[in-house]
Amino acid sequence: MTEQLEAAMHEALEEAGKALAEGEIPVGAVLFKEGERIASAHNEREALRDPTAHAEMTAIRRAAQALGRRRLQDCTLTVTLEPCAMCAGAALAAGVKRIVFGAYDPEKGCAGSLYALPEDPALGSIPCIGGVMEAECRKLLDNFFCEKRKLNPDA
Question: With 14 labelled, which of 36, 58, 96, 141 sits at a CA distance of 20 to 30 A?
Answer without folding.
Answer: 96
